[in-house]
Amino acid sequence: MKPEPASLRELYDNHPLTEASILERVRKEGKDLNALTEEDLCRDPQGGITDQNHIGGADAVRRLAAEAEVTGSSVVLDIGCGLGGPARVLADKSGCHVVGIDLTLSRLAAAIRLTRKISMKGRASFAAGDARHLPLLEGRIDVIWGQSAWLHIPEKKRLLEECWRVLCPGGMIAMEDTFLGDAPGGGAADQVDRLSRIWMAHLISLRGWTDLISRSGFEVTSTADLTPLLSRSATRMLRVLGGTDWPDEKEAWVIADRLAANGRIVYSRVLARKREKGGQAPLSS
Ligand SMILES: C[S@@+](CC[C@H](N)C(=O)[O-])C[C@H]1O[C@@H](n2cnc3c(N)ncnc32)[C@H](O)[C@@H]1O
Description:
41% of the residues lie in helices and 19% in strands. The chain is built from 11 helices and 7 strands. It has helices at residues 8-13, 19-28, 38-42, 57-67, 85-94, 105-117, 156-166, 189-199, 206-214, 227-241, 247-261, and strands spanning 75-79, 97-102, 124-128, 141-147, 167-180, 218-225, 265-274. The chain has a 7-stranded mixed β-sheet with strand order 3-2-1-4-5-7-6, with helices on both faces. The site of S-adenosylmethionine has 25 residues, from helix 1, helix 5 and strand 2.
């Protein structure tokens, strides 16, 4: 059995979804690896070996972009960009500029290589960085993006302070992630703990998250429950991981599916706008 990863970087350094597995899947489809498009990378007709390491895949990127009103002139920051799939879909479909940041250097290097394989015309770029100390100047970003990434960040207040700092006035947060659900009863706490351990997640309730956003100088403009996508993702991931040696990943998806069915976890979309005049900087306590 594989030892448990000691750090988040180690978790993603050894993640089953890799640049090599994506390119191998595309090659098996008979595509020319020297003439790839983002559609080749983000769509797997057989299942889930794509550059989209989040729940909902490329369709979720498009829907979130529409909700956040991303246009060709938007500058988007994808925090926890992973292999860069959402950044490429965004830039490809809307013509916007996206900067992806991630603290796992192996994912970032793969994101850069995959982006070089397709024609992005410089609209998707990547940099090493930690969400808690964004390597960016104040007020330059129109939309801050996060898909299935921010659950890893323990210091959520600090993350929101950084979002507030780098967003322009009226800028948007557009994110989707796993949260604790409101299902009554304290059962299944051990299962939530086990899932959090495998995923290296720091889960809070959706209400807790939207309250924190509201207290951090933003107006929550919409939320949507996407939990059915989590269940579909679990089915797909269990198929993809089927014959592989990833017992913890498989266990996590079994647990996640069960917890979602019982309302103990939810997968939700949250959009929030930085308050303009009369708004306030994040609270210091
Ligand atoms: C599940 S992957 C999602 C990748 C990408 N958002 C996608 O949808 O394909 C989560 C990513 O978040 C990154 N991450 C976690 N915590 C981070 C932090 N504090 N700062 C920057 N990146 C972080 C991890 O390194 C990992 O690549």
